[in-house]
Amino acid sequence: MTLLSKPSFQIEDVRHTINSYIRDLSDELYTLNQLIHDEPEKAFHEFKAQTCISDFLESQGHSVKRGAYNLPTSFESVHPMAEDQFYQNSTTETAGQSSIAIVDLIAEFRGTSARASANPWDGVNALDALVASYNNISMLRQQIKPDERIHGFILQAPKITNSIPEYTKVKFSIRRSKINALKKLSEHVRHCLEAGGLATGCEVEITEDLAYADLWVNDPLCSLFKVHMDSLGIPLSPGSKHDNISGSTDMGNVSHAIPGLHAIIGIETSPETFPHNHAFAEAAGTREAHLKILEAAKGKALMAWSTIFDDGIFTEIQRHFEKMGEKNSEDKPNL
To answer: What are the protein's GO molecular function terms (predicted)?
Structure first.
């Protein structure tokens, strides 16, 4: 069943109200956009962005809890009309793109320092351990499957040449299409790291971050979003969970807990521009990109309205989610 009884007004009225509301907020939202865009912050250090967004939401009457879920830069926002009435949800933004699972391994190698010129034989070289491990993983890559990815970088390395390094640190990200299959690949990488320490006599400490699960695409929810975006004059391709996807997102974990979608909205860029480069970052801060995202916000608001007030749609979305859970029962991560 849905969460509230269906009101008397029609979808055309809702669309007009949503369009007007978002249009009226456009300038404020663009100012917020620029504040965040002009002062980029690293992941998990988005303190200025958290403050800007939380302040804005509070100005709109939302109840905001800053530092929610034991994460200093997170926040939880609840609209005053939502309290005790709505099921709280969370989705990110083709309609219905999938993503793959990911886990990070951080390895620290500890050896013994010694003078490189006088008595190197008394040292245990932590840099050699790191290099050996890196080479092990590079050789592993020729055996991995097309849906698997391994990439890493050195977090800490020696800064001088006249001493045998006693400490190094490296991080590897491992990706695969399914969370359960990811465990096997991450074990191979772990063995490569351990072997580097064993070969050089270094101690190895490996830390594993919480894995990001593969994304469960809720087809009815994606179709609903597409219908509403089409009604706004922005046609979307349906997307496919069978596309050759190599990216990952924490939205995957959310989609294992509640129905969700991960839509992709295009912005104007040059043909050679792609995500994660400087040209894309610049394009994301333009007024044109802002207007594209406002249209996506309208589509998501309409999608939410339909889900809340239409029994048939709500039931279809929930049933699809439950079937995904049954199909992937052995693949569900610990959330």
So the answer is: dipeptidase activity
Q: Measured in Å, how far apart are the chain's first and last C-alpha atoms?
A: 26
Q: pLDDT tens for residues 173-204?
A: 999 877 777 889 999 999 999 999 999 999 99
Q: If you search the block for the tokens 């992937």, which residue do you land on?
A: 328
Measured CA to CA, the distance from residue 179 to residue 270 in angstroms comes to 35
**In this structure, is the dihedral angle defined by the CA atoms of residues 260, 71, 156 and 188, taken in order, positive or negative?**
negative
Per-residue pLDDT of 100-152, as tens digits, reads 788 999 999 999 999 999 999 999 999 999 999 999 999 999 999 988 999 99
Instruction: Look at domain 89-98+214-331 and name its CATH class.
Output: alpha beta
User: pLDDT confidence of 268, banded at 50, 70, 90?
Assistant: confident
CATH number of this structure's domain 101-208:
3.30.70.360
Under 8 Å CB-to-CB from 111, ≥6 apart: which residues?
Answer: 123, 124, 125, 126, 129, 164, 165, 166, 167, 200, 201, 202, 203
